[in-house]
Amino acid sequence: MSSYKDLDIYQISLSLFLKTHPFTLKLPKHELYELGNQLRRSSDSVNTNIVEGYGRRSYKNDFIKFLVYSEASCLETISHLEKIKVLYPYLSQESEDLLNNYNLLGGKIHSFKEYVRSKWRC
């Protein structure tokens, strides 16, 4: 692996962020800067923490710490999507699709974090 861009979790999280951002713009105007902003920020954080952690990969504990942050941001994103699904039924199918993908991503981040914890060599 020569770059964070080679990581499956990076590629998936970036793709999901690029789907999530325009999705938030479908929220009612009053939600764009409330729930929409929170969703955009947490979705971005999933991806950004993977990149920052990879940049600190020489320090195994730092790498793990940022993967924990990424996993937590993924859970936060899931929580925001669950709220949107209930509050805005016209977005429920898109919300559900994103929820399924973020749930899968969360599992992959967790698995990668455990791999780094047990097998990563600096």
From TrEMBL:
Pfam families: 23S_rRNA_IVP. InterPro entries: 23S_rRNA-intervening_sequence, 23S_rRNA_IVS_sf. SUPFAM superfamilies: IVS-encoded protein-like. It comes from the Bacteria. NCBIfam families: four helix bundle protein. This is Four helix bundle protein. It comes from Algoriphagus machipongonensis. The lineage of its organism: Bacteria, Pseudomonadati, Bacteroidota, Cytophagia, Cytophagales.
